[in-house]
């Protein structure tokens, strides 16, 4: 774990052996990626991305085609905008 990086991926302890599971994406407030940047794998059911476009930028019209997915665990998103340092 490297908590000083702007985007951190936390895995279960057995991840080093290839058997762990992703536990969390931490995107820090100092992170400013280029435009739209996905942090999750395209095959994952929960898509995690950051968006940083300049003022006045218009997102082109698009659609999301249906993708069959089998989800075995509850997924959760927390957006923390403040708290103890």
Task: Report how far the terminal alpha carbons are from each other.
Answer: 18 Å
Q: State the major sheet.
A: 2 strands, antiparallel
C-alpha Rg, in Å? 15 Å
The rough form would be described as: flat
Distinct helical segment count:
0
Helix content: under 10%
Q: Provide the structure class.
A: mainly beta
- Average pLDDT number: 74
Cross-sheet strand order for the largest sheet: 1-2
Q: What's the total number of strands?
A: 4
The proportion of strand residues reads: 15-25%
- Helix and strand sequence: EEEE
Q: Give unreliable regions as ranges.
A: none
Structure explained in plain terms:
This protein is mostly beta strands. Helix content is 0%, strand content 22%. It contains no helices and four strands. It has strands at residues 7-11, 22-27, 35-38, 49-52. The strands form two sheets. It has a two-stranded antiparallel ribbon. A two-stranded antiparallel ribbon has the order 3-4. It is flat, with a radius of gyration of 15 Å. The two termini are 18 Å apart.
Task: Walk me through the topology.
Blueprint: E1 7-11, E2 22-27, E3 35-38, E4 49-52
Short description:
With 85 residues, the chain is mainly β.
């Amino acid at each position: 774990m490297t908590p000083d990086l702007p985007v951190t991926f936390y895995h279960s302890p057995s991840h080093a052996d290839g058997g762990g599971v992703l536990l969390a994406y931490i995107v820090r407030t100092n992170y400013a990626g280029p435009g739209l940047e996905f942090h999750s794998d395209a095959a994952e059911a929960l898509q995690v991305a950051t968006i940083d476009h300049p003022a006045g930028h218009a997102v082109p019209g698009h659609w999301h085609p249906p993708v069959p997915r089998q989800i075995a665990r509850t997924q959760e998103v927390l957006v923390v905008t403040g708290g103890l340092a």
